[in-house]
Amino acid sequence: MWCVGRLTEEYRERMYDLLDLYARPFRSREPVVCLDEKSKQMLKDSRIPWPIKPGMPMRQDYEYVRAGTCNLFVAVEPKGGRRTVVVTDRRAKVDFVAFVQFLLEQVYATARRVHLVLDNLNTHFRKCFEEVLDVKEAQALLRRVVFHYTPKHASWLNMAEIEIGILDRQCLDRRLPNRTLLTAEVNAWQQRRNAEQRGIEWMFTRQDADAKMARHYVS
């Protein structure tokens, strides 16, 4: 907790809200969806690598060429074993609104209510939907959405961070030269994990929080 120092009432309220949300039983008609973004730098080889041979791994020069960046929107439904990853050029509010719109209208079209877990990035708030869409359209889009925000300096409470870490280790931890290849690799990765219904088992409870953090609470 060194980066926070004091756990204010707002911090505790938001933390309790998320921990209570994560403790709920799975409801297919009311999914809990954790959402975050990740930037990925494209890197090209400066020299053609030597290919793999029997008894010899691929050899790659340490030098590389920077080839721009892409953004990945990552949404994961921990108890439903479903994730949705979309590659975009940027992560501006227009891109964020389009991603949430895709989730609501395509992925979770039949859900009665969708609980979205987000951090406090300035593009993540309702006003951005009203700015990108008009107010009436934004209200219609978000009528089934309940927003849940992490406390400031508490991204550990967003399970999308866990899924991004897995994505990093299993798919992105190498040089990818362009968006086309990145998209193909990410799509194959998420299709496999979705087919296997890989979920996230959250173990940290409200009682654990009080036991570990109570001395930092400020009324």
Secondary structure elements and pairings:
Elements: H1 9-23, E1 32-45, E2 64-77, E3 82-88, H2 93-107, E4 114-118, H3 126-132, H4 135-141, E5 145-149, H5 160-172, H6 179-195, H7 206-213
Parallel strand pairs: 1-4, 4-5
Antiparallel strand pairs: 1-2, 2-3
Structure description:
The protein is α/β, with parallel strands linked by helices and 219 residues long. It has one domain (9-47, 57-197): Nucleotidyltransferase, domain 5. The chain is 37% helix and 21% strand. The protein has 7 helices and 5 strands. The chain has helices at 9-23, 93-107, 126-132, 135-141, 160-172, 179-195, 206-213, and strands at 32-45, 64-77, 82-88, 114-118, 145-149. Helix 3 (126-132) packs across helix 4 (135-141) and helix 5 crosses helix 6 (179-195). The protein is globular, with a radius of gyration of 20 Å. The model has no long low-confidence stretch (mean pLDDT 92).
Low-confidence stretches: none
Counted up, domains total: 1
How many runs of DSSP E, i.e. beta strands?
A: 5
Calculate Rg over CA atoms.
20 Å
Name of the CATH first level: Alpha Beta
Assembly classification: single chain
For CATH, the homologous superfamily is named as Ribonuclease H-like superfamily/Ribonuclease H
Helix percent reads 25-40%
Q: Name the beta content range.
A: 15-25%
Placed side by side, the strands forming the largest sheet appear as: 3-2-1-4-5
- Biggest β-sheet description: 5 strands, mixed
Total number of helical segments? 7
Distance between the termini: 17 Å
What structural class do helix, strand and pairing data support?
alpha/beta
General shape: globular
